[in-house]
Amino acid sequence: MQERRIIPLSEIAELGKTLSAKGLRIVLTNGCFDILHPGHVRYLAQAHELGDILVVGLNSDASVRLLKGEDRPINCGEDRAEVLSALRCVDYVTIFPQMRATELIHALRPHIYTKGGDYSPESLNSEELTALREIGTDIQILPLVPGKSTTRVIERLKKG
């Protein structure tokens, strides 16, 4: 079984070249993954099934604050990366500092890119979408798990 690893963003391009040279299909997803819940786990398992290797691009703490607000992330980037990398379906995790995954996409050159059902190809960030199309990446939108979301978990915690 392949060892799961948290790798620096600076090594992601070399990882992509090595895996592709071995004929492995790379799946990329990205996000905050702030409070891991069953919806995330099911989504990541489905994403992994689409290829041979699943790489998760994790927004840095600073980019999560810009995307989600000053109260986020609940868990720091290193903790989020450790939890994600422990999942059987996740092969690699890398933390990226930008709000958008464009640079990660260009560096890794994934064969497949996945997002959850709260997105559509048309609603993806235009910069990311352009990068994906430039390298010929297949975009897959995976269904959400009804009733499972970070927002719902936070709301329940606030109610006590």
- Specify the helix fraction band: 40-55%
Number of continuous helical runs: 7
Average pLDDT, rounded to a whole number, is: 92
Physical arrangement of strands within the biggest beta sheet: 1-4-3-2-5-6
Count the strands? 6
Tell me the β content.
15-25%
User: What Rg is obtained from the alpha carbons, in whole angstroms?
Assistant: 15 Å
Structural class by SSE content: alpha/beta
Write a brief structural summary.
This protein has 160 residues and is α/β, with parallel strands linked by helices.
Walkthrough of the structure:
- The chain is built from seven helices and six strands.
- By secondary structure, the chain is α/β, with parallel strands linked by helices.
- Strands 1-4-3-2-5-6 form a six-stranded parallel β-sheet, with helices on both faces.
- Helix 1 (12-21) packs parallel to helix 5 (102-108).
- The longest helix has 12 residues, at 38-49.
- The radius of gyration is 15 Å and the shape is globular.
- The N and C termini lie far apart (41 Å).
